[in-house]
Automatic annotation (TrEMBL):
Classification via Pfam families: MAP70 (PF07058)
Coiled-coil region list: 64-133, 167-194, 219-354
Alphabetized PANTHER family for the sequence: MICROTUBULE-ASSOCIATED PROTEIN 70-1, MICROTUBULE-ASSOCIATED PROTEIN 70-2
Lineage of source species: Eukaryota, Viridiplantae, Streptophyta, Embryophyta, Tracheophyta
Annotated family: Belongs to the MAP70 family.
Gene Ontology molecular functions: microtubule binding
Keywords noted in UniProt: Coiled coil, Cytoplasm, Cytoskeleton, Microtubule
InterPro entries membership: MAP70
GO CC terms: microtubule
UniProt-recorded name of the protein: Microtubule-associated protein 70-2
């Protein structure tokens, strides 16, 4: 079994429990030995499942998916912040353009207002002058009428020239004065109309000034909003820098995770190769056990055959008096049989040494796999 623990700091530890390799002490065939062999082969057969479990461990995948989702979220927030910054810059340019247009319009309205005030002052002076002339003409008319009355009164008292001779120039002057008065009245009406139009223009200018003031207040509000937006842009830029730093950190963590996963995959592959080697050695060890059992059986059969041959030969070489066969021939046959038995013993010793070497090699392989995985 293998245990894998992964956290944000990317500390991965692999603990491998070596599979117990049970070897039967006796070479007798039976149900118990076959069961023990099946039980000893079971962990080596599950090595592929162990590799798949370690290669596709859920904590690593979950951490990688979480980091990828965080990176995607930060990228999306960064793009949204950049789009908002662009929109704020565009709105700021529009506000500056509107402020410039309002400033130009306000300067034009101020120029028109000054011209209107100058015209109004000049027209007021003209109206004042006309009123003075009108008063002077009225005073002259009153003086002429008083003169006529005095003339009539004096004509009644004294003998004077005819009244027509006196009135003719006065009437002519009066007619001229009346014509001049009519002209002045026409001028006065024209001035009244001009004054009304100027007043209307002045009211329009006042309304325009009020609109300009309202726009100026709006400009102030827009400037305040612009300042607030600039502060928000600075905050967004700071957040963008922080997000960039976090993104770089996350990318570094992802690279570390990727490197760790690669190392784990290499370790798992090495462990799989070791497991395959152990499985091969187990198979070879089982074959050697089978060969050893076969040699044991052959040795037993050879012993039985030797005993039988010795008995038969001994019986054949007995005479009627039950004398034993010649010792020299029996010793030669016995030496030949002992040589075959010695060869079988050497084969058994070789099999034992090979089994010991296999056990030592398995221990070395497992220790190497543990060092690699840890």
């Amino acid at each position: 079994m293998a245990e894998f623990s992964g956290d944000v700091g990317m500390e991965a530890t692999v603990v491998v429990t070596p599979t117990p390799l049970t070897v039967s002490g006796s070479f007798k065939e039976g149900k118990n030995s076959s069961r023990r062999r099946q039980h000893s082969m079971r962990p080596s057969l599950d090595a592929d499942e162990f590799m798949n479990l370690l290669h596709g461990s859920d904590p690593v995948k979950m951490e990688l998916n979480r980091l990828e989702n965080d990176v995607r979220d930060k990228d999306r927030e960064l793009s949204e912040a950049q789009a908002e910054i662009k929109a704020l810059k565009h709105s700021e340019r529009l506000r500056e353009k509107a402020v410039e247009e309002l400033t130009e319009e306000l300067s034009k309205v101020d120029g028109k207002l000054k011209l209107t005030e100058n015209l109004l002052e000049s027209k007021n002076l003209e109206i004042k002058k006309i009123n003075d002339e009108k008063k002077a003409s009225m005073a002259a008319q009153f003086a002429a009428e008083a003169t006529l009355r005095r003339v009539h009164a004096a004509q009644k008292d004294d003998d004077m020239p005819p009244i027509e001779a006196i009135l003719a120039p006065l009437e002519a002057e009066l007619k001229l004065a009346r014509q001049e008065i009519a002209k002045l009245q026409d001028d006065n009406r024209a001035l009244d109309r001009l004054t009304k139009s100027k007043e209307a223009a002045l009211l329009e200018a006042e309304r325009t000034v009020q609109v300009a003031l309202a726009k100026a207040s709006m400009v102030d509000d827009l400037q305040n909003k612009n300042q607030e937006l600039m502060k928000q842009i600075e905050i967004c830029q700071e957040e963008n820098k922080i997000l960039d730093k976090m993104l770089r950190l996350k990318v570094a963590e992802v690279e570390k995770l990727t490197q760790t996963v690669r190392e784990l995959e290499e370790a798992v592959l090495a462990g799989g190769a070791a497991a395959n080697a152990v499985r091969d050695y187990q198979r070879k060890f089982q074959e050697m056990n089978e060969e050893r059992k076969t040699l044991d059986r052959e040795l037993a059969r050879a012993k039985v055959t030797a005993n039988r041959v010795a008995t038969v030969v001994a019986n054949e070489w007995k005479d009627a008096n039950d004398k034993v066969m010649p010792v020299k021939q029996w010793l030669e046959e016995r030496r030949f049989l002992q040589g075959e038995m010695q060869q079988l013993r050497e084969k058994l010793a070789t099999a034992d040494r090979t089994a010991k070497y296999e056990a030592q090699l398995k221990v070395i392989i497992w220790s190497y796999s543990l060092n690699v995985l840890t």
